[in-house]
Write a structure and sequence with these properties.
4 strands, ABC transporter involved in vitamin B12 uptake, BtuC, mainly alpha, single chain, two-stranded antiparallel ribbon, 15 helices
């Protein structure tokens, strides 16, 4: 990646640093301050959208680590979120655990379950592996519905809000900070994983697993590690989301959510941390915008009927995904890199 004029790296550590100039640090601090003051002027609806983005971002970071970096397709990521959500709820309700202890344990439980469904990745890959992970969606939901004493079965299950030194975090304004901090930590974690030897091994397995194995990279170990880390983040996301809603049901973790997670990676850009952020934000904001605009379209064009208003969301979202697959297959993150490069090389954009 080209650097601005006068900026150069003299050590490998500096070349691999996430923030390499003072401008980067200024932008980072300014952005964190902006995130911190958002609850002061945001409405409850806007905070709800931001919390949803933060929770989804954690899960999609895990899917990006698994699919974008390691090349292991998963269509059951929503089910691993459910494992984390129900595990966290059970630990808090039945064993009296604190949210801060239950959350990492829920992530670990989701990671272990992910290992069970990731084991076939040594023998199958591509669409065959996708079908295997698709089975996780149905198997996990079957187990949840047939353990009513722990999960509540088909009924909704109450989840207590987090407690921070005696202060209940149960409002959107207070929970916003919990969700956003966890999203920032997940982003930092995935970004650092991608810069390590493990991250480079993931990319090697994704690009050509036979060549990677010939270079001494353990395929089974790295595939299992990718499944564990990806499902671990999904479990963390499920736990954070469950304690925000304070009630969960199997209806909150549908197969369509797993498909939308993949669409977020396609729109944002596979194998890029910024791509996850762009994709999640773009899809969720667009979905919220369509929900608000669809009733207005029905009023302005009554000939279209109520049916068009109800189907408008899926129609527009499908067209957006097709557009990115055809015209911008590398996602918004690639376009962002092009824009940054043009500014760095100005006035010589060629």
């Amino acid at each position: 990646m080209p650097l601005p004029s006068g900026i150069y790296n003299i050590t490998y550590k500096k070349d691999m640093a996430i923030f390499r100039t003072w401008d980067h640090w200024v932008f980072l601090i300014g952005f964190l301050i902006f995130l911190a003051v958002i609850p002061a002027f945001a409405t409850r609806s806007q905070l709800n959208t931001l919390i949803t983005i933060a929770c989804t971002l954690i899960a999609v970071h895990g899917l990006n680590l698994l699919t974008g970096y390691c090349g292991q397709i998963s269509i059951g990521h929503s089910a691993f979120m459910a494992v984390g959500a129900y595990t966290s709820a059970a630990l808090c309700n039945q064993l009296g655990f604190s949210f801060w202890i239950a959350m990492p344990l829920a992530g670990a439980c989701a990671g272990i379950v992910g290992l069970l469904f990731g084991a076939p990745s040594l023998r199958v890959k591509g669409f065959y592996l996708a079908i295997t992970t698709l089975g996780a969606q149905f198997i996990i939901m079957y187990v949840i519905t047939h353990l009513p004493s722990i999960t509540g079965g088909v009924r909704s299950l109450d989840v207590p809000p987090p407690n921070f030194f005696g202060y209940l975090i149960e409002t959107d304004h207070s929970y916003y900070y919990v969700a956003m901090i966890m999203a920032i930590l997940a982003t930092y974690f995935v970004k650092n994983i991608s810069r390590t030897g493990v991250g480079r091994a993931f990319v090697a397995v994704r690009d050509n697993d036979l060549a990677a194995e010939s270079m001494g990279i353990g395929l089974f170990y790295h595939k299992m590690l990718a499944f564990f880390l990806g499902c671990f983040l999904a479990g963390i996301s499920g736990s954070v989301y469950a304690h925000y809603l304070q009630t969960i049901s199997i209806e909150y973790f549908k197969l369509t959510d797993s498909i939308w997670f993949l669409s977020m990676l396609i729109v944002g850009g596979l194998g890029q941390t910024m791509g996850t952020i762009f994709g999640v934000t773009f899809i969720i904001v667009l979905r919220q915008f369509i929900m608000e605009v669809a009733p207005l379209v029905s009023k302005v064009f009554p000939v279209l009927g109520v049916e068009f208003s109800a189907a408008m969301g899926l129609l527009v979202m499908g067209l957006v995904i097709i557009f990115f697959l055809v015209f911008e297959p590398r996602g918004l993150a690639h376009r962002w890199e092009i824009i940054k490069t043009k500014f760095r090389l100005y006035p010589f954009p060629y």
